[in-house]
Design goal:
Number of domains: 1
Largest sheet: 5 strands, parallel
Order of helices and strands: HHEHEHHEHHEHHHEHH
Structural class: alpha/beta
Radius of gyration: 20 Å
Number of helices: 12
Helix content: 40-55%
Oligomer: single chain
Distance between the termini: 45 Å
Strand order of the largest sheet: 2-3-1-4-5
């Protein structure tokens, strides 16, 4: 977590989904653990960049020089305009791109539909030393599947179980999973979609399908509640992050990533050569 004075409490336990969690009563416009506002939040985010970059480089170096199998997977879910892209740009973008593996899951192709829903997901699991990012994920198959009735209740139940088992396999293989649901209000989403229509430089981001999905808002909230209840585990918990203020989820996710990396107690790999001898050789060359 950032050492900025505006952090008064670790956001991790405040954002983590626990028994009895209700999405419908969770605010979308707060900033748990942080007392500052937009200006302070942006400053605090900038202060985290060096720490996050250092930890990411340690993770990458450990895999390349010492064969360390550990890696991190950041799963980003949320309604359209919730801020997934901003987190990728402003948080993940602060680390060395060679240590990042990004996968953006769209509607499945015919080839993907011919396999189990996790088939395409398994192909994008980050390799050792990487920070993987899923911009949407395997959870689309239980969210849209439920809202649009693309899967039967029995199949949805199977998928919840398959997801929990899949994530358990990942954590056993050295993957630290950080699952974030960006919780934006319906009013804020409307305002953000309106900006996309009012600004020519944002037209490329607008999709008329976003309005179609917006009309299903209550059903999506129910679908997210089911996901949070069924798939938030000790090994792979969900974090619900208020997202009406764009600066806060960026800061909170940076803090969650730093916490996950710090828990690994990463050390720089020890040189497997005689440093003094090589230094002498270089000096004499």
């Amino acid at each position: 977590m950032s050492d900025d004075a505006q952090w008064v409490a670790d956001p991790e336990p405040q954002l983590r989904v626990t028994d009895g969690f209700r999405l419908e009563t969770t605010p979308t416009d707060t900033h748990p653990g942080f007392t500052g506002g937009k200006v302070e939040g942006r400053r605090a985010l900038a202060d985290t960049a060096d720490r996050l970059a250092d930890l990411q480089e340690r993770l990458f170096a450990a895999s390349r020089a010492a064969g360390d199998e550990r890696r991190v997977l950041l799963v980003l879910q949320g309604m359209d305009t919730a801020g997934k892209g901003g987190i990728i740009k402003h948080v993940v973008g602060s680390v060395d791109p060679q240590g990042v593996q990004l996968a953006a899951f769209k509607a499945p192709t015919e080839e993907e539909l011919a396999h189990d829903f996790l088939w395409r997901i398994r192909r994008e699991v980050p390799g050792p030393g990487m920070i993987g990012v899923f911009d949407r994920s395997h959870y689309e198959d239980v969210l849209i599947g439920r809202v649009r009735r693309l899967a039967s209740p029995e199949e949805l139940e199977r998928r919840y179980g398959a997801i929990v088992e899949f994530e358990s396999e990942l954590t056993a293989a050295g993957v630290t999973i950080v699952k974030v649901m960006l919780h934006v209000s319906r009013d804020e989403q409307k305002a953000r979609l309106m900006k996309r229509l009012e600004r020519p430089d944002k037209h490329w981001k607008f999709n008329s399908g976003d309005i179609d999905e917006r009309e299903q808002w209550p059903k999506y909230q129910e679908a997210y509640q089911a996901v949070l209840e069924r798939t938030s585990t000790e090994a792979a918990p969900w974090y619900v992050v208020p997202a009406d203020h764009k600066w806060y989820p960026r800061l909170a996710v940076a803090s969650l990533l730093i916490g996950a990396l710090e828990s690994m107690r990463l050390e720089w790999p020890v040189a497997d050569f005689d440093v003094a001898a090589e230094l002498a050789r270089l000096t004499a060359s």
